[in-house]
Amino acid sequence: MNDPSAPPNGPDVDPISLALSHAPIRATFPPSMPYRTAFITGASSGIGRALALRLARDGVHVALSARRRDALEDLARDIERRCGKADIYPLDVSDPARVEATLRGADDDLGGIDLVVANAGVSGGQRWSGELDYEATAEVISVNVQGAVATLLALMDRMVERRRGHLVGVSSLAQYRGLPRSATYSASKAFLSTFLEGLRVDLRQAGLAVTDVRPGFVETAMTAGNTHRMPFMVQAPDAAEIIVRGIEKRSPVVAFPWQLATVVRSAALLPPSLYDRAVTRAKG
Ligand SMILES: NC(=O)c1ccc[n+]([C@@H]2O[C@H](COP(=O)([O-])OP(=O)(O)OC[C@H]3O[C@@H](n4cnc5c(N)ncnc54)[C@H](OP(=O)(O)O)[C@@H]3O)[C@@H](O)[C@H]2O)c1
Questions:
Q1: pTM: predicted TM-score of the whole model, two decimal places
Q2: What parts of the chain have a pLDDT lower than 70?
Q3: Which end of the chain has fewer surrounding CB within 10 Å, N or C?
Q4: CB distance 169 to ligand 1 below 6 Å
Q5: Which CATH superfamily includes the segment(s) 26-282?
């Protein structure tokens, strides 16, 4: 492993980037984030990575999880170089027994996890439903549904006993309706949003918070291959900022950007016959 304290060198490194790469990331005082520790799945890239950096900036000790160990190590080094605290927990969320063991291990290591973010997800690509088979849906269901459920439940008994904890699931604006060429993805996120709502109404009495995050298009590896229009696209650090503000406020639902959220909420009110016609017309 490279020495993380060694500055990058060579003729191409400009002094501002060099200074920023070593700047402490804990910038806000007093911190508005009420939590000390967080476990984040899907932290190796995109929204999860940006969220880990943003939480670490507020002094949260972050447990970084995903399958790619190298990417997690790079991120942990980056956070530590800026005076944040991070540990890595490589994990495939489609193995529920490992999810439970890993989160409980992290809970022991960090003296109690305050915030669990079930963010790991896959899109499964875009496929016309007439070419769909069970095989093509399996990964999406095992990661987005089973993986998210296993993550959200792994510490439930401990959080209820402590009467402390916040569960966050990263769903999508795609959960409002079955989208063309995305039946499995839309359905997986609809499951997650409904599951989170059920948890939320139950867990109020236990003092636990639950937040359902519903992003529109965010510029990440997941959207990189999309060829269709992606209106109101958001950058991952901006998405992380919006999510953190929602967590701080213990918001039940964080749907963004507001422009696209307004459109899809309106589409959710359409009767099926009108929705079907609107989708057909939009596709040309
Ligand atoms: N980007 C968008 O426009 C958008 C919009 C709405 C919702 N979302 C949701 O936001 C979440 C994050 O997506 P993203 O856009 O940031 O995409 P991304 O950059 O592709 O990140 C996906 C993350 O999930 C992890 N992951 C995938 N399969 C996994 C598995 N089996 N076990 C553990 N980790 C796994 C990946 O890490 P490894 O490959 O290292 O395992 C990666 O860290 C997803 O739930 C996605 O559905 C994204």
A1: 0.91
A2: 1-31, 283-284
A3: C
A4: no
A5: NAD(P)-binding Rossmann-like Domain (3.40.50.720)
